[in-house]
Each structure stands twice: as structure tokens, then as C-alpha cells.
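thought: fold this chain, then report.
action: predict
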Amino acid sequence: MSTNSFSPAAEILRSSKRLVIKAGSAIICGTQGEANASWLSSIATDIAMLRNEGVEMIVVTSGAIALGRNVLGLKGALRLEEKQAASAAGQVKLAEAWQAALAPHGIKIAQVLLTLQETEERRRYLNARGTIRTLLDLGALPLVNENDTVATSEIRYGDNDRLAAHTAQIAGADALIILSDIDGLYTADPRINADAAHISVVDVITPEIIRSASGPNSVSGVGSGGMATKITAAKIAGASGCATIIAAGDCAHPIRAVLEGAPATLFRPSDNKENARRQWIAGRIKSAGKIIVDQGAAVAIRDGASLLPAGVTAIEGDFRRGDAVSIISTDNEMLGQGLSAYDAPDIKKIMGLSSDAAEQALGYRRRPAVIERNDLVLRTK
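observation:
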């Protein structure tokens, strides 16, 4: 990414290989209930620029309810079922608006609708991760939004800042950039306090940082998130090793602006991605079962490879896809712990088989590894 800026936020963007961009309703729709085609066109140019430089991109977009209520003629405060109806109508218009902006750059979008269950339930988490990973492999741009049509108050993220942070976790992103109506964090709300000072870098989210956050966007009346939710999102993303940038989005080419040195606030992650994931996997309280592997597989996974069906000799336990399992050698050595990509009954069908034979035995196609290397933590001797 070519720029002469040496701002901390710009440096993080330049070094990121996988980036999540979050854009809110106030920016995408304003107060008119229509998508801002000019703004979408400008950020589409930014996205195309980054993709051309090899960056994998994911967009978390708000705006479905704001667009849908206009389509359906809904006025005033909406009941839950009216919000769900507005979301159903608005998702179509929102996807069409993004596709129209990205089509001139040859970029195809794929809509991914998530609820809180995708991050709370291991199986659904793995399904969401697999879908996003496959879309990126196929060159599509995942367009993520909360599935408001089916979500209730008990299973909602509540705002798309948190959704964006969880999306960054699921995708294994290097950075999350939240585009806002303000160019980052200040010591006080600059809209009402002329002495408020801009904060360019936050190394640790302290109580003082949290107190400096202001409330939701009272000007637009459209979005549901404020600075407090963005700080919460930064904490969520940071715990998985993902940096967060809060930057002004209500301008043309907002990503390019940050790269060129525009003010923004960088929240450094509290851990790096590898350590955060290793601690998460290794920290499971109890293993749900065991996978016994032959000597060749033991050597391969120690060398950084995934565990393939051919190397499995036996299993113990009735575990399910996404459960933590122990990996044991044939001489009963504990090799490590990982997340199983298959249910135990399916592993019994494919253990000892080549990847092609495993596909035939199951009758369906999936990534061949029983445990992928990114889901495996080896025990240190």
C-alpha cells in the first residue's frame, strides 16, 4: 500500500493481510432511508485497491432496517416484528447497493447473515468460519450483517460494532477498521467539548479510556452503536490478536484517507493472533475425547501439518465437530489438543483412508483434515 504516512493506524493497515471493514447505518443511509451511492462507490474503490495488493477483505455492513423501513413505509419506533420485517426487505436493497458499487471493479459479493449463536455455539462457529474462508478462497467479498429477521433480543449482538469484532475473530483478521461519524477516540466528546484531545493510540483499554466514550450518534438517529460499543468491540477483537482502528467514515475514500495519515485511533491487540488462539484451544477445561495417531502423523503434526484421516488409528469418546479432543500417539504419548473437524462417528468411517477415499466413504466433500493445523496446539516437552 503506497503512502508516505507513518501514523500507527496506517502502519497497521499496511501490514494487514486480512481486514474487516465495518460501516454503520448513519454513513451508508444517512437520514433519508436510501443508500448513499456516491459514498459506496468511493469505498468500493478503496476496497478494490487493497484487494489488488493482496489483502483479503470482509465488510460488515449496517443499514438493512434503515433501508427496509423506507421500502415498507414504516414510521416512528418499530416493534420487534416490524424491525424483522424491515430487515427482510432492506437486506435485498443493501446487497444490491453494495454490488452496484463493487461491480465496476469486478468484485462479487456474498451475503453472510450471522446471529450471536454463531459465536456461542462451536458447530455454528466452525460453519461460519468455513463459509467465510471458502468465500475468500473463491475471491468473493463476504458482506456480513446481523440476521435481524430471525434474531430476538436474547440472540442479538445488539449492534454491528460487536458483530464486526466477532466477525474479525471468526475470520482470523489482522485488523478491524470501524468507520464512524467521528475520527477516533477523544478525551471527551468533541461535539460538545472544545478542549477534547484526540487519542491516536490506545495500548491498554483502561477505565479512563472507557469513561471517555460518548453515547450513540444523536445526530443521525439511525445507528445503534456509539463510542462505548466501539471500545467494547476493540476489546473483543484485541483478545483474539486483532488490532482495531476507529476512523472517520463520513468522507470519500475513508480507507485511503487513513493510509495517507488522516486522524484515527488505533487500539493495539492485547495478544498476538497465534498466542490468543493457542490459549483458547489449550484452555478448554475438559477434552471431549481422544484421537490416536500413528507415528507418521505424529511426526507430521510436530512439523506443522494438519492431521489427516490416513494418520488416525483409533478414537475414544462420542465427541462432535468443534469439540476439543486430545491427540495421542500409539505409544500413549500426549501430543496436544485440537478442535475436531468431524463428529466421532464420521472419523470412524474415514480413519486410515486417503483424503479421496475419505470423501467417498462419507458421501460428501469437506476440507480433508480431521484437525486443521490452525486448530491444533502441541504439547511442549
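thought: worth noting. The first strand starts at residue 18 and ends at 23.
final: C-alpha cells above.
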